Amino acid sequence: MTTENAFELARQAAGDLLRRCGVDHFDLAIVLGSGWKQAANALGTPSATVLTRELRGFVAPTVPGHDGVISALRIGDRNIALISGRVHLYEGNAATAVAHPIRTAVFAGATKILLTNAAGSIDRATKPGAVVVIRDHLNLTATSPLEGESPPEPYASRFIDLTHLYDPGARARIKSAFPEITEGVYAGVRGPHYETPAEIEMLRTIGATLVGMSTVLEAIAAHHLGAQVSALSLVTNMAAGVSPTPLHHLEVLEAGRNAEGELATVLSTLVALL
Fold first, then answer.
1. In principle, which of 9, 110, 168, 220 could form an S-S bond with 26, CB 3.0–4.6 Å?
2. Run of H or E residues at 268
3. 3-273: what fold?
4. Rounded CA gap, 154 and 134, in Å?
5. Among 42, 130, 69, 59, which Cα is nearest to 93's?
């Protein structure tokens, strides 16, 4: 797929999404990572739910807990899109497919994007169940949603500055509302296997406090289109070499269930803050 076609396909998908949801735009889009889906139920009952396989350019997720749906909610005077069905590089997808839901949401009007994920903690002081605000990332996926041909006009250059990728103002508002929540640096890796203890030690050395297999490409794609980006990690496990026990995806899902009440409070508050 060419870069131009990727943008045009997302525009078409945005039109499909708005028509199926019966709204003329979205204000905020929230990507529900592993462990966050059930917490989002606290936001209210969706007015519409669309299967992503019915939208142009979307690929079906293959990871348990990622259903492949986008739900529309009306909260106050704002339209919210809940994206449950993130796809990843390790499923055999290109960066353009990973970025497609985010581009679709932005083209559907969402000027603010909240990305959530499950992450392993490299920082021994940050335990499973903690929520961490991402202040910066290390993109170790060896790819970018801006690879290939230069984006067509009127879009920004592919040489986009990422200095303030994770919006400082939004981070300050989150910190004010939840003083107990810390900030961290998220290392985005390809997966699907977990990291080795030596790799975790390397990541710690270069400044990472969290590690996961998503988010970084979505954040870059949203920022490139001018959206305000915020991101939260639910710590579901200690990383390899930090944890005394073997890692397993089931603990990721279990940690999400155990933290459901706290995550629901965080999401409900942030919808009003962002």
1. 110
2. helix 260-273
3. Rossmann fold (3.40.50)
4. 29
5. 59
Which one, of 9, 111, 94, 99, lies nearest residue 55 by Cα?
9
Cα-Cα end-to-end distance for the chain = 33
Token pair, residue 171, equals 């981070």
Output the pLDDT for position 251: 62
| 110 and 81 Cβ atoms separated by less than 8 Å | yes
Nearest to 257 by CA among 41, 83, 73, 61: 41
Look-up of token digits 């749906």: 69
Cβ within 8 Å of residue 21, ≥6 positions away? 47, 48, 50, 70, 72, 81
The torsion of the CA quartet 52, 252, 190, 126, rounded to 10 degrees, works out to 130
Residue 2 has pLDDT above 60, yes or no: no
Q: 112-147, pLDDT tens digit by residue?
A: 999 999 999 999 999 999 999 999 999 999 999 999
H or E element at residue 159: none
Q: How confident is the model at residue 64 (pLDDT cuts 50, 70, 90)?
A: low
Q: Which pTM does this prediction carry?
A: 0.94
**Most distant CA atoms of the chain, gap in Å:** 52
Rounded to 10°, the helix 249-258/260-273 angle is 70
Let me know how many helices (H) and strands (E) the chain has, helices first: 7, 9
Alpha-carbon span 98 to 249, nearest angstrom: 20
Are β-strands 78-84 and 112-121 bridged in parallel, bridged antiparallel, or unpaired? Answer: unpaired
Q: Round to whole Å and give the CA distance between 128 and 238.
A: 7
User: Of the ranges 31-35, 102-106, 252-256, 263-267, which is most confident?
Assistant: 102-106
Phi, psi of 209 (to 5 degrees): -115, -10
pLDDT one-digit tens code per residue, 220-244 = 999 999 999 999 999 998 998 887 7
